[in-house]
Write a structure and sequence with these properties.
Elements (H helix, E strand, L loop, with lengths): L2 E6 L3 H4 L7 E10 L2 H12 L12 E3 L27 H6 L4 E4 L5 H10 L2 E4 L5 H5 L2 E8 L8 E15 L6 H10 L2
Parallel strand pairs: 1-2, 2-3, 3-4, 4-5
Antiparallel strand pairs: 2-7, 5-7, 6-7
Amino acid sequence: MAEVKLQAPFTKEIGKTLKAGDTVLITGTIIAARDAAHKAMTEALARGEKLPVDFTNQTIYYLGPSPAKPGHAIGSAGPTTSGRMDKYTPAMIDQGISGMIGKGYRSKEVMDYMLKNGVVYMVAVGGAAALISNCIKKYEVLAYPELGPEAVARLSVENFPAIVAIDAMGNNYYEEGQKPFKEI
């Protein structure tokens, strides 16, 4: 396990250098999208429409922020439970994403699709939403503004903390990290 400074967006080749258990500090831009945005995007794709955002090499942060206080880019910005996006994830991986950030486990189907496509999954600490918001310097709605906090948005981040939960080779830190304690 290593501490990694990661510039976003990043390619899948760079994502493949990350290992399950690595801690990362992400600087650059990531894309925020939650349940309603994922539903709207997969429905658009099913209709044969082009998405309003190019997701090639992007990292999606499963986020529905609270309103920003005066002088702040964003309000509380904790991760959403990733499993709620599992039914939409293969379609988003097909759009070229290189990473995802959320919290919690992923389904076997999603993990298999991640492995097949070289995509990494990172987790952010859910209880640290107010602290995470300090790492977000700019919040810009890109699509579906009618969805409010669930709109697709670009986040400019600086030293955004995350942990690699499932790397692009399929190693799962949830499983590996628990092994020593299961032997007790």
